[in-house]
Write a structure and sequence with these properties.
420 residues, alpha+beta, Rossmann fold, 2 domains, eight-stranded mixed beta sheet, five-stranded mixed beta sheet, 16 strands, binds histidyl-adenosine monophosphate
């Protein structure tokens, strides 16, 4: 018989990891609600051209990482490598900018696909939470997206992180920076790696992101994006920093920060978190982009957004919650020891669940000791034993699994006793 295994770079998510993924998703949704963003869902696959147009034809995503195939109608289809292009396409196609007040504020969450070399925290199918603000008229929306991320990290109790920021200013400043970098690197052309020699021709900004030439760059005084900003862009970048400082958000200006997608034209940022093993994970990134809506056939609307790697956040949380139960809702394990006890157990479970308790009825184990072993292994808050003695006394035996204290409680008093 054939042996089936999952495809390289994909994940089966279950048990603790599944709870962590859900915890991250819940935190993101809660903060999205608090920031008054609406949910948007777009298809997992789109026409390939949408992504080649939006991500940039020379970006790594387009040249190396897209899952592209011909469908039965001979159309070139791509599994979405990121969320921005699909959301912007949906906004244009459904003319959402005409029927809603601007800026539009949407969030999304789901699977994305990139043909990357798999390693810890890097998968070929991964989950992202993202937001897009469309039709923004102020740098304050850029600040808001960063505060949004900070709120999510706080909700997840992740307090040690680095926000790296840089600014391209606007399209004109970015072009100026591109030319400046090209001229600068041209003098070292022969010393750059083969990939960078090509990047220098087609996309000089990407040279800064090279892992091979990274050490060589450290010895050089590479021109910065900030040095190419005009007066207004400089002032706005300073104001962004002023507000973040006032809001006690830790950030650094990273002059070598560029992003893997080409559409950014203004503020860009990435968030790094160091895991316990010392490895640094980029858990999210985003920035301001002002041409994409127009380039995809819509009106002239400026945007800002970000994406967070849900799997990477769950990976980091795994260390925090290694031995701890993540669910703080009191959980109850009911042990019916005879047939008559089953009816009482079912009524009790129904009532407790209706009051938001987490309840499991033991349906299979035979011995009381194996049931108690299971109750402590699964970290239940309480165990309720219902045997013949209890039935005769119209009571149940309620055990607090933390303190190990037991008491006989009348059946219709259980809820009151649990509530204290
Ligand atoms: P991105 O930086 O390409 O941005 O991805 C955002 C985050 O997704 C990354 O920081 C990382 O945490 C996670 N991620 C990316 N690739 C993988 C992978 N192969 N495995 C696991 N996690 C991964 C974007 O995608 C932009 N669309 C963000 C954005 C929205 N910019 C403006 N609006």
């Amino acid at each position: 018989m054939a042996n089936y295994t999952r495809c390289r770079g994909t994940l089966d998510i279950y048990d603790k990891q599944a709870s962590l993924i859900q915890k991250v998703e819940r935190a993101c949704q809660k903060i999205a609600h608090q920031f008054h963003y609406s949910y948007i869902q777009t298809p997992m696959f789109e026409s390939s051209e949408l992504f080649t147009r939006s991500s940039g034809e020379t970006s790594d995503i387009v040249t190396k990482e897209m899952y592209t195939f011909l469908d039965k109608g001979n159309r070139s289809i791509t599994l979405r490598p990121e969320g921005t292009a699909g959301v912007i396409r949906a906004i244009i196609e459904n003319k959402l900018y005409a029927t809603n007040d601007l800026p539009l504020k949407y969030y999304y969450s789901g699977s994305f696909f990139r043909y990357e070399r798999p390693q810890a925290g890097r998968y070929r199918e991964f989950m992202q939470f993202g937001v897009e603000v469309v039709g923004t008229q102020s740098y304050l929306d850029d600040v808001e997206t960063i505060l949004f991320i900070v709120a999510i990290l706080k909700e997840l109790n992740l307090n040690e992180y680095t926000i790296k920021m840089n600014s391209f200013g606007n399209e004109i400043c970015k072009n100026r920076y591109r030319d400046t970098l090209k001229n600068y690197f041209w003098q070292f052309k022969e010393q750059l790696c083969e990939d960078c020699q090509t990047r220098l021709q087609v996309n000089p900004l990407r040279v800064l992101d090279c892992k091979v030439d990274h050490d060589f760059f450290k010895t050089k005084e590479i021109p910065t994006a900030v040095s190419c900003l005009d007066a207004q862009a400089q002032e706005e970048f300073a104001l962004v920093q002023k507000i973040l400082t006032q809001q006690k958000v830790p950030y650094i200006v990273d002059h070598q920060l560029v992003r893997g997608l080409d559409y950014y034209t203004g503020l860009i940022f990435e968030i790094d978190i160091q895991a316990v093993d010392g490895k640094v994970y980029t858990i999210g990134g985003g920035g301001h982009y002002s041409n994409l809506v127009k380039e995809l056939g819509g009106p002239d609307l400026s945007c800002v957004g970000f994406g967070l790697g849900i799997n990477r956040l769950a990976l980091i949380l795994q260390e925090q919650y290694q031995d701890k139960s993540m669910d703080t809702t009191p959980s109850i394990y009911i042990m019916p020891l005879c047939e008559d006890a089953i009816f009482i157990a079912m009524d009790m479970a129904k009532q407790l669940r209706e009051h938001d308790y987490v309840v499991t009825i033991e349906n299979g184990k035979k011995s009381v000791s194996s049931m108690f072993k299971y109750a402590s292994k699964k970290q239940f808050s309480y165990a309720i034993v219902i045997g013949e003695n209890e039935i005769n006394a119209k009571k149940v035996n309620l055990k607090n699994m933390q303190t190990q204290q037991q008491e006989m409680v009348a059946v219709d008093e259980v809820l009151n006793v649990l509530r204290g």
